[in-house]
Write a structure and sequence with these properties.
The chain is globular. It has helices at 12-16, 26-35, 52-60, 78-86, 99-104, 107-121, 132-137, 141-152, 171-184, 207-217, 233-237, 250-264, 276-291, 294-312, 328-340, 358-367, 380-390, 402-406, 422-438, 441-447, 455-458, and strands at residues 22-25, 41-43, 66-71, 91-94, 125-130, 155-159, 197-202, 223-228, 244-247, 268-269, 321-326, 344-350, 372-375, 394-397, 412-414, 466-468. α4 (78-86) links the parallel β3 and β4 (91-94). It is α/β, with parallel strands linked by helices and 471 residues long. α6 runs parallel beside α8 (141-152).
């Protein structure tokens, strides 16, 4: 059955057997994924983590000519304010549910909010985002959508976000992509013909990374259809006629790639994130192979490699011990990059991991079977414990944990808010690595501040709170 026929997407746990709690070695995790269904684990204590509502709002914030109606309390809309100030291409409002609404229901408030949003902003799209409050009081959102779609003559798209159905916040991306394609993708034509267009799948990406990817794909001479970042309703409607879809981050946009393939027959090219020379070459070659333009991809890659090597000069990470804390797709490509530059990866923290990466885990286990591995999203207390023992020379990760890890006196580089993709991204990243290793004054200064964690915790095993789930 097509994924789009369902009311909403499945959680990552059900769809991909995704894990979010584990500590061990690469070899042990690879055996677990290859021989059986991975054992689910839980935490008896969890420090912090995002939920699917935040990720859904982040994705929707970049859709042009849209209004987001957050159907919930004011607290549920707090992230909407942040995204409005940073990445928003549209507007948002909140229905501001109170105690009475959570018991009696708030269909009337929702109708009033959607109608007012349409009259005030005249958008192409209106999103109704359910929240944990609505998941409890069970408002009939679909009836409101059906009624107002005819009355207002505008596309109204409901997103059924619960905030607690999944341990993985990235499920919010799947929920949003499911709704966008379900309501905007259209029916598949019997006379379906692919046009000279490539779907570039980019979710919550950096603007410079998107521009670099567009530069790389321009070598094929085809029109680019970038979605969902910066997309409009038209972008989604024409996606079904593309010659192929290729992702900048398979962790976040895998769902829409699969749906476009299963529902409309658009080939989905699964390739590593284009980080570093090797991965960028493979990413470009994968697109070229599907289009029958391998030679153009290879020629372009060779030209760019020469330019990058000239720019990098004598820069190397030889002798530098590196710890990585990233999502799986990014981590595998950054790991290859560190080794390309001569560095040594001594430990890794995946934000989550699933069976799509069995092959990469197998390759890594053959090369580094005893490499320490940690799976956690939003658990810096565990990551700090591990890193204090390993004492790396450099930490590469997302922005969430940098302050805590920096307190250990270790140079840190955030890969979340800076460009890293493609050939230009590699040059920029190498300069940041060099700057962090050369100037250690900030790391030394912050290391003098007291740790937020007690020595009693740091003496314990980092997996103290990770337990097997009891079914």
């Amino acid at each position: 059955m097509s994924l789009l026929k369902a009311k909403s997407s499945l959680t990552r746990e059900k769809r991909l057997d995704t894990l979010n709690a584990l500590q061990g070695t690469v070899d042990s995790l690879e055996r677990e994924f290859s021989t059986k269904e991975p054992v689910k684990r839980t935490r008896t204590f969890s420090q912090s983590s995002h939920d699917d509502l935040l990720h859904a709002l982040r994705l929707l914030a970049s859709i042009r000519e849209s209004v987001i109606v957050i159907h919930g309390s004011r607290g549920c809309a707090a992230a909407g304010l942040f995204y409005h100030l940073t990445v928003a291409a549209g507007c948002w409002i909140v229905t501001n549910l109170d105690e009475r609404d959570t018991i009696m229901g708030a269909d009337l408030k929702l109708r009033k909010a959607v109608t007012e949003a349409y009259k005030r902003y005249k958008p192409e799209l209106i999103f109704i985002v359910a929240t944990p409050v609505v998941a409890i009081n069970n408002d009939d959102i679909q009836s409101v959508v059906d009624e107002l779609h005819e009355a207002l003559d505008v596309d109204i798209i409901p997103l059924y976000v619960t905030g607690f159905a999944s341990h993985h916040a990235v499920t919010g991306y799947d929920i949003a992509l499911h709704a966008l394609l379900k309501y905007l993708g259209g029916k598949r034509s019997d006379e379906h013909q692919h046009e000279n267009r490539i779907n570039l799948l980019s979710v919550a990406g950096h603007n410079d990374d998107q521009r670099e990817a567009e530069r790389l794909l321009s070598v094929f001479g085809l029109e680019l259809n970038t979605l969902p970042d910066g997309a409009s309703a038209k972008t989604f409607r024409q996606a079904q006629r593309a010659r192929l879809s290729i992702s900048l981050d398979d962790d976040s946009s895998n769902y829409i790639g699969i749906c476009l393939h299963d529902e409309y027959g658009v080939p989905y090219v699964e390739a590593p994130r284009p980080i570093g020379l090797g991965a960028t070459g493979r990413w470009l070659a994968a697109a070229g192979k599907e289009l029958g333009l391998e030679e153009a991809a290879q020629t372009f890659h060779e030209q760019e490699c020469k330019k990058v090597k000239q720019s990098l000069g004598n820069f190397t990470l030889k002798g530098v011990r590196v710890y990585l804390g990233l999502s799986a797709a990014t981590l595998f490509s950054v790991l290859d990059l560190v080794e390309e530059l001569g560095g040594e990866v001594i430990g890794i923290t995946f934000r989550y991991i699933d069976h799509r990466y069995k092959h990469r885990l197998h390759e890594l286990a053959l090369m580094h079977p005893a490499l320490p591995i940690h799976v956690a999203d939003g658990q810096p207390f565990e990551e700090v414990n591990i890193i204090k023992r390993l004492s790396p020379d450099l930490y590469l990760g997302d922005a969430a944990h940098l302050s805590q890890i920096g307190r250990l006196g270790i140079p840190v580089v955030s890969l979340e808010e800076s460009p890293i993709l493609g050939y230009n991204g590699l040059i920029f990243a190498a300069r940041r690595f060099a700057a962090a290793l050369r100037n250690r004054s900030f790391a030394s200064a912050i290391a003098r501040s007291p740790s937020v964690y007690q020595n009693a915790w740091l003496r314990r095993s980092a997996n103290w709170h990770i337990k097997m789930e009891v079914k």
